[in-house]
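Retry 2 of 3 after timeout on previous attempt. Resubmitting structure tokens to design endpoint.
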């Protein structure tokens, strides 16, 4: 609960939430245009905006370092900090994702396939960005770190998604949701091991 409260109070959380909402409203306007190409492009972007709120994961680890360091003064085990960070990120992105889904459904942009695709992409984005946020931690004391962290996190997510999507396509799997879940699984394994090691090491000292 404490980790979640820290994450949702980040300025970046508000920015990403507004971007997701403005995005789904923009695609609604684009789909009502008379340009077929623009309509097709907007329809392809709709699931993306469901996932956007979960990009907050890239800032979660860095913003929680001071909070988790306090567990050294309590009986709590530091190994739980990594899991708490991931759960907080997942929970933080969910409310705004549901708002985007509701907005898209009311405006006729989203059906069940798009919702499933967006949620799977959101899961992959959440875990991957949280993992990369632990490798390249964000710090509020250094403004440039936000740019470095976001480029690293989103870059790795994009490359991983493209590679696994290509591999899935070669195997005859055309579902983008399955590709996203594969990205999430790989990132989860690496993220939990790495974050646990860092939490139990450098942060406590």
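Retry 2 succeeded. Sequence:
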């Amino acid at each position: 609960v404490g980790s979640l409260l820290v994450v949702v109070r980040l300025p970046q959380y508000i920015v990403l939430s507004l971007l997701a909402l403005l995005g789904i409203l923009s695609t609604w306007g684009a789909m009502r245009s008379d340009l077929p190409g623009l309509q097709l492009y907007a329809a392809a972007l709709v699931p993306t905006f469901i996932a956007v709120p979960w990009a907050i994961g890239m800032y979660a680890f860095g913003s929680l370092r001071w909070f988790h360091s306090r567990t050294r003064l309590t009986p709590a085990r530091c190994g739980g900090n990594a899991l708490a960070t991931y759960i907080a990120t997942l929970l933080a992105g969910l409310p705004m994702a549901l708002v985007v889904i509701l907005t898209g459904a009311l405006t006729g942009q989203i059906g069940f396939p798009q919702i499933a695709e967006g949620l799977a992409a959101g899961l992959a984005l959440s875990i991957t960005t949280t993992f990369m946020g632990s490798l390249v931690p964000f710090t509020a004391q250094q403004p440039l770190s936000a740019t470095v962290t976001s480029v690293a996190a989103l870059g790795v997510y994009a490359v991983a998604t493209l590679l696994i999507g290509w591999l899935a396509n070669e195997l005859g799997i055309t579902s983008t949701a399955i590709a996203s879940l594969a990205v999430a699984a790989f990132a989860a394994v690496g993220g939990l091991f790495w974050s646990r090691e860092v939490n139990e090491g450098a942060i406590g000292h």
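Attempt log closed. Confidence is low (pLDDT under 50) at residues 201-205.
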